[in-house]
Design goal:
Elements (H helix, E strand, L loop, with lengths): L3 E6 L3 H12 L4 E7 L3 H11 L6 E2 L2 H5 L7 E4 L6 H10 L3 E4 L7 H14 L3 E3 L7 H11 L6 E9 L2 H10 L11 H4 L2 H11 L3 E9 L28 H6 L7 H4 L5 H10 L16 E8 L4 E7 L6 E8 L2 E6 L4 E6 L4 E5 L8 H4 L1 H14 L11 H19 L5 E2 H6 L2
Parallel strand pairs: 1-2, 1-4, 2-3, 4-5, 5-6, 7-10
Antiparallel strand pairs: 7-11, 8-9, 8-15, 9-10, 11-12, 12-13, 13-14
Helix pairs in contact: 4-5, 5-15, 6-9, 9-15
Bound molecules: nicotinamide-adenine-dinucleotide (NAD).
The site of nicotinamide-adenine-dinucleotide has 27 residues, from helix 1.
């Protein structure tokens, strides 16, 4: 059977993760071209793919000035670059696997959606959670009505204090103007997954939240600009302690593709990753809530929170006859009808690949391969652009509400104004 071919634009954390799927699906997929404006990233990704030099491109312009090289282009550059890269790739004839968020600007989302429609391109947005055993099992239980009619959902994204500090204080998503509001950057997944799980659209929402802690006024006395010389004791955000203790695991490869002690220390000396978390120019919120009214009176409370030990998502779905609940990282899902026994579903018994977003990276790529080959399978969960756009509209509406002090937003009215 013909392999589905991929060209990848942006060989950072995400682009490299998608390239790595070729090792999982060697008979089904082939990465035939890669582009990044940092040679060190291209070389690192090519260590295991061994593409010839003429298939490595030193930036977006270089690959997008070629004719179409593959069936699908993966757009894995930064949020603010998606519009330009996605539109140019579609004009060349590519179907896309587009990293979320679709874009960091509302008008760009509308433009990318219209362009895909006009050109007849298939665009799948990387809402990897939909492809995990955890959420698919919950979706199955809800669809089978094991706890009756769903009345309410409580969901929490526990970002984790260390992930929050790495990505949203020091890292790529610390400034809204350069990246995205937090509710879009981190929670477009949640805005996608919640209505999908219960099969109800969001009708109204409002939101509260702020950047409360990671700012100058909370800086401990004597803290220095960079953590190296800092005398503040037991700081959980001390960069050398944090990164050196995690080598070579996530997120050290983001600091350097070869995360050894020398390279990490050099990155901490020269990049934001070595700076004090109270002396950055970050402006994205560190905690936010969204209250939603979904169809048929279903209510939902969602929280994004940076102040947690664990990095996970938890969910509780309450129906007329019982509850379904779980913690993403525990690899278990539970349900219980009122006054009856608790049922435990051990996901390790039904799934073997929990790598990359709990198996979501592999699940997404495999569904894309099957879709592209024309396999006969259920495509109702696939995150096509128009489905994904709804989650982005919810995120932008929530952000507008938060900025307006929690004002109620009617989703139909919000979308009608776009
Ligand atoms: N699906 C998910 O769960 C998920 C998780 C994390 C990030 N993301 C999203 O994925 C995207 C990529 O994030 P990342 O963490 O991989 O970031 P990253 O910074 O690690 O990777 C982006 C890469 O793009 C390259 N690049 C920048 N400008 C370029 C250009 N003009 N031409 C070619 N390459 C260029 C950079 O050198 C970098 O290697 C972002 O939109 C991010 O929000 C999605």
């Amino acid at each position: 059977m013909k392999k589905v071919t991929f060209a990848i634009l942006g060989m950072g954390n995400r682009g490299t993760a998608y390239a790595g799927r070729q090792l999982k699906f060697p008979e089904e997929m082939e990465v035939v071209a890669m582009a990044d404006n940092r040679r060190v990233r291209l070389d690192a990704a090519n260590k295991y793919l061994n593409l010839p030099e003429d298939r490595l491109f030193d930036g977006a312009d270089a690959i997008l000035s070629q004719p179409k090289l593959a069936d699908i282009m993966v757009i894995a550059t930064q949020d603010a670059q998606h519009r330009d890269h996605a539109v140019r790739a579609m004009e060349l004839g590519y179907d896309l696997l587009l990293e979320k968020p679709i874009s960091n600007k509302l008008e760009d989302i509308v433009y990318i959606t219209e362009t895909a429609k006009r050109l007849g391109r298939t665009v799948i947005v990387c809402h990897v959670l939909r492809y995990t055993a955890f959420y698919r099992e919950i979706k199955r239980l809800v669809s089978e009505g094991v706890v009756g009619k769903v009345q309410s959902v409580e969901a929490m994204e526990q970002v984790g204090y260390y992930h929050y500090a790495h990505s949203y204080v020091r890292g790529n998503w610390h400034k809204e103007a350069d990246s995205s509001p937090m509710i879009l950057a981190k929670c477009s997944h949640d805005m996608d997954i919640i209505p999908w799980l219960v099969d109800k659209k969001c009708l109204k929402l409002n939101s509260f939240g702020s950047l409360a802690y990671f700012k100058a006024e909370n800086c401990p006395e004597g803290a220095t600009e960079r953590c190296f010389d800092c005398k503040v004791e037991n700081c959980p955000f001390h960069a050398p302690n944090f990164y050196l203790s995690r080598m070579p695991g996530w997120p050290t490869h983001i600091l350097h593709p070869e995360p050894n002690e020398e390279n990490i220390l050099e990155a901490l000396r020269t990049s934001n990753y070595g700076k004090c978390v109270f002396k950055m120019d970050n402006d994205v919120v560190d905690h936010q809530t969204v209250q939603m009214l979904l169809e048929d009176g279903v209510t939902c409370t969602f929280q994004m929170i940076g102040f947690t030990n664990d990095q996970t998502r938890t969910i509780r779905i309450m129906g007329t006859e019982g509850e379904i609940w779980g913690d993403f990282h525990s690899r278990k899902v539970y349900w219980q009808c009122f006054n009856q026994e608790v049922h435990e579903i051990d996901l390790e018994k039904i799934c073997t690949d929990f790598s990359g977003h709990g198996g979501g990276d592999s699940g997404l790529v495999y569904d894309v391969i099957r879709l592209y080959r024309g396999d006969d399978f259920d495509t109702s969960a696939i995150t096509f652009l128009n489905r994904s756009a709804e989650s982005h509209y919810m995120a932008f509406a929530a952000e507008a509400s938060r900025v307006a002090g929690g004002q109620l937003v009617d989703m139909e009215e919000f979308v009608a104004k776009l």
